[in-house]
Write a structure and sequence with these properties.
Layout: E1 10-14, E2 20-25, H1 26-34, E3 38-44, E4 47-51, H2 53-58, H3 60-66, E5 73-75, E6 80-82, E7 86-89, H4 104-110, E8 127-131, E9 146-150, H5 151-157, H6 162-165
Parallel strand pairs: 1-7
Antiparallel strand pairs: 1-2, 3-4, 3-7, 5-6, 8-9
Length: 209
């Protein structure tokens, strides 16, 4: 992987109170560091330290000597720098956004690409969105009234309620507690550091770019 490829990798952003709020790409994280509105939080073996940009540059040689495998690296005109994985905003106390967007991707993710009438999993091309209570009868666009349905079940149900059509729902539709399409999976060892600042409650929050 080239140095430039790391510039789009995600960096966890903490607010002033060390609460995780969102993720940004590496390139944006460095902009915040250069503007001196953020600092790097470096976590090694569960212990963390704070660095402003100047001290992050100064510690780079020691990191290369003793922590080479713990970091990815980008090259500047004069030196190599470790890619930060966590930054902390020094002035902002922004809180996480608990809103989960109602959109097609999140609906399909919530229902696992399964028809909520026959229970079978389908490719996206064979799925549609059904209004449990038909719109023509006052049904709205809401988490509790929209479900995934295969083309066949949707046609069979038609302009009826599930009860009228004799079609039971697999499960009651609800607003998901987390954004299904934006859940972060920490696959790489470099992101193990995030776990210091993320608990189970935080995983119910959408991480926004």
């Amino acid at each position: 992987m080239t140095a430039l490829s790391f510039l789009d990798d995600p960096v966890l952003v903490l607010n002033r109170g060390y609460a995780a709020t969102r993720v940004v790409p590496v390139r944006q994280a460095f902009v915040l560091l250069f503007r001196r509105v953020a600092e790097v939080i470096s976590v090694i073996d569960g212990h963390w330290e704070q660095f402003d940009l100047t001290s992050w540059i100064e510690v780079a040689e020691l990191q290369k000597r003793y922590e080479m495998g713990h970091h990815d690296w980008i090259r500047t005109a004069s030196r190599e720098l470790a890619v930060p994985r966590i930054i902390r905003l020094q002035l902002c106390n922004r809180q996480p956004d608990h809103h989960v967007r109602l959109n097609r991707r999140n609906l399909y993710s919530r229902d696992g690409n399964c028809c909520q009438y026959c229970g079978r999993r389908f490719p996206l091309s064979e799925l549609s969105i059904d209004h449990v209570m038909p719109q023509s009868r006052g049904g709205d666009n809401s988490w509790s009234n929209l479900v995934c349905a295969c083309v066949r079940c949707n046609a069979r149900k038609g302009n009826r309620t599930p009860h009228e059509a004799g079609m039971a729902l697999v499960k009651r539709p609800r607003r998901p507690k987390k954004s299904p399409d934006r859940s972060v999976r920490l696959r790489r060892s470099q992101y193990e550091a995030w776990k210091v600042f993320l608990n189970e409650a935080y995983w119910t929050v959408e991480l926004r770019d």
